Amino acid sequence: MLISASLKTVSRALVALLVLGLLGAAPAWAQRKSRTSTANPDGSLGAAASTLSPRAARLQPLFGGLTPARATQVIGEAQLKAIAASFASPAEASVFFAKKGFEYLSENKPDTATYRFNLAWLLDPQNADAYRGLGIVASAQPTPDAAIGLLTSGLSLAPTNGLLLSDLGTSYLIRYGQTKKKKDLATGLDLLQRATTLGPTNANAWQELARGLYYQEKYAEAWAAVHKGQAISPSSLDFSFVSDLLAKLPDPQGTFK
Fold first, then answer.
1. Alpha-carbon span 177 to 212, nearest angstrom
2. DSSP letter at 39?
3. Rounded to the nearest 10 degrees, how much is the dihedral formed by the CA atoms of 144, 153, 8, 201?
4. Sequence-distant (≥ 6) Cβ neighbours of residue 159 within 8 angstroms
């Protein structure tokens, strides 16, 4: 939904490019506004769940790491049942709140979006979009570890979801940029190649694949991926990256100089 996309108000695309994915384009990523909270081992954000007030827990992915039973207590069992009663099933309610979460992300309201995604998860823990939305929220962290944890959980539920593949692959490339670990690069490229195979019209996935190929010094292949993404959506271009690629190899098509 990665919406997999958002706006270019932050460094490299998660909420910006992720928001574009929400709107139908593919996701790339970035919102790098960092918050003061840190990632928990389970991929959630913020302080230990036991130290959070109920209100604060609502604004942390997966309620700060609470179990569904404890998270239900935060919302209130009666209130949660009343919410679900407005829909044909809890699963339908979960789909509704996940969609609302992406809408709030596109409006740059991450706290409101987080609460909706948390509701979506609580109503249906098998809703992969809830994890994707929370992964996008987590992309605001200084490191992508929390986002990777959440997106991985979502992908385990929907292994052929092209937007999850794209968002997760991009997250691994971001981590490679920080760690320079070849495993992160290899994993990111594999995910992005799968994303472009399953969703060949995912422009952001092509651009992120180009970035991964650039890291591997496969500049001609990177240019091919750039042009595939550009043909689908010119707005997917990252001109800073294009400049870096030009410095390594002139554009074989002569489009960029």
1. 10
2. B
3. 130
4. none
Question: What are the residues whose beta carbons fall under 8 Å from the beta carbon of 20, sequence distance 6 or more?
Answer: 3, 4, 5, 6, 7, 13, 26, 27, 28, 204, 235, 236
DSSP 4: E
Alpha-helical (H) ranges within 30-107 are 54-58, 68-75, 77-85, 90-106
Give 135-162 pLDDT, tens digit per residue: 999 999 999 999 999 999 999 999 999 9
- Whole-structure pTM value: 0.81
Q: What is the mean pLDDT of residues 201-222?
A: 98
CB 163 within 8 Å of CB 194: no
- What's the rounded Cα separation, in Å, for the pair 164 and 154? 7
Angle between helical axes of 90-106 and 77-85 (0-180°, round to 10): 90
